[in-house]
UniProtKB/TrEMBL annotation:
InterPro entries tied to this protein: 6-PGluconate_DH-like_C_sf, KARI, KARI_C, KARI_N, KARI_prok, NAD(P)-bd_dom_sf
Upper classification of the organism: Archaea, Thermoproteota, Thermoprotei, Sulfolobales, Sulfolobaceae
Protein name from the UniProt record: Ketol-acid reductoisomerase (NADP(+))
Gene coding for it: ilvC
Pathway listed: Amino-acid biosynthesis; L-valine biosynthesis; L-valine from pyruvate: step 2/4; Amino-acid biosynthesis; L-isoleucine biosynthesis; L-isoleucine from 2-oxobutanoate: step 2/4
Protein's organism: Candidatus Aramenus sulfurataquae
Top-level class of the enzyme under EC nomenclature: oxidoreductase
Residues that bind Mg(2+) 1: 191, 195
One Pfam family linked to the record: KARI_C
Binding-site list for NADP(+): 25-28, 53, 134
Length: 332
């Protein structure tokens, strides 16, 4: 059984009075900086230059400073810049100012697990990895909840790394639901595998393939959009609240029978074999190598795919229907 920590196991005391540098003010950076500040902690936002993130941080009431100035004045440094950028930020802005006893904190284990960053033994290195997108980390916190997270310790120089990881988790709201103890290896590999085969890649291509199938068969794209893409949230919300059994209870017997039989026919052993292949590429480091190379070439695959998706029929139809979709959303 996994070790789960909740509010009663965590205190802010181990990090009270310490200054926390949040490096990056994007998806997670903004959520963490705001949540930690609202939890009464001393946060400074560190950024590379005066761009959009800088303006956003100022609009939220922070006084951002350059990355290395944030590092110099802080005890705890949280890496919330993109994974591919972290090793450069570490090498150029963090490492030269590292002091014995400082903490390096990650929201995902990529750079530590694949040894792109190798900190000295005299600092604590730990992770608090929210299991949800940054804007949700903020939204749940504001409404009194929190997104569950994983915590892991890579280096425990002080002997207090777990207490501090739990304090950060509490500060962002994650101990309200609970946090699970893991390792950098388990978090990194499961996070990458999950987002590839399921959360990001799998679900998107499942929905797009279903949409395209209906349209290619001559059905109206608007009808196809509501059927294969828009309704997904409603079904997933029921799974989220009540599990698969609860979802199957909520749909018709016709949908139950069709779903149970055809689901396994479409998402078959062959699909699972490919999931396993993708997972092995994460485990043996091939995916990391491939992603680093893509990033070093200027991320052409990402750029091309974003353009293709933006111009796709499903996206255009979705944008056309967005007003209608918005009108139907609950008002409170
Ligand atoms: N996005 C998520 O919901 C999510 C969820 C869990 C964990 N994480 C992890 O959190 C970390 C941050 O990811 P994110 O998605 O929030 O990042 P992001 O892409 O939203 O980060 C953007 C921030 O990084 C800065 N930045 C971008 N390029 C930079 C560069 N070249 N040099 C310096 N700063 C640069 C931007 O100015 C901005 O402030 C990653 O380790 C990621 O794996 C993200
Ligand atoms: C939000 C996700 C997909 O769970 C996260 O892992 C990320 O990398 O953005
Ligand atoms: Mg991820
Ligand atoms: Mg994730």
């Amino acid at each position: 059984m996994a070790k789960i920590y909740t509010e009663k196991d965590a205190s802010l005391d181990p990090i009270k009075g310490k200054r926390i540098a949040v490096l990056g003010y994007g998806s997670q950076g903004r959520a963490w900086a705001l949540n930690l500040r609202d939890s009464g902690l001393d946060v400074v936002v560190g950024l590379e230059r005066q761009g959009n993130s800088w303006k956003q941080a100022e609009a939220d009431g922070f006084k951002p400073v350059l990355t290395e100035d944030a590092v110099k004045q802080s005890d705890i440094v949280i890496f919330l810049v993109p994974d591919m950028v972290q090793r450069y930020v570490y090498r150029e802005r963090v490492q030269p100012h590292l002091r014995e006893g400082m903490d390096l904190v990650f929201a995902h284990g990529f750079n530590i697990h694949y040894k792109l960053i190798e900190p000295p033994k005299t600092v604590d290195v730990y992770m608090v990895a929210p299991k949800g997108p940054g804007p949700t980390v903020r939204e749940y916190f504001v409404h009194g909840g929190g997104v569950p997270a994983l915590v892991a310790i890579h280096q425990n120089y002080s002997g207090k790394a777990l207490e501090k990881a739990l304090a950060i988790a509490k500060g962002i709201g994650a101990t309200r639901p609970g946090v699970i103890e893991t390792t950098f290896k388990e978090e990194t590999e499961t996070d990458l595998i999950g987002e590839q085969v399921d959360l990001v890649g799998g679900i998107m291509e499942l929905m797009r393939s279903a949409f395209q199938t209906l349209v290619e068969m001559g059905y109206q794209p608007e009808v196809a959009y509501f059927e294969t893409i828009n309704e997904m949230k409603m079904i997933v919300d029921i799974i989220h609240n009540k599990g698969f059994y609860g979802m199957l209870k909520a749909v018709s017997d016709t949908a139950k029978y069709g779903g149970i039989t055809v689901g396994k026919y479409v998402i078959n052993e062959d699909v699972k074999r490919r999931m396993r292949e993708a997972a092995e590429k994460v485990r043996n480091g091939k995916f990391a190598e491939e992603w680093i190379e893509e990033y070093n070439r200027g991320s052409p695959t990402i750029k091309q795919a974003l353009q293709e998706i933006q111009n796709s029929l499903e996206e255009k139809i979705g944008n056309q229907l967005r007003e209608m979709i918005e009108r139907g959303k609950p008002k409170s």
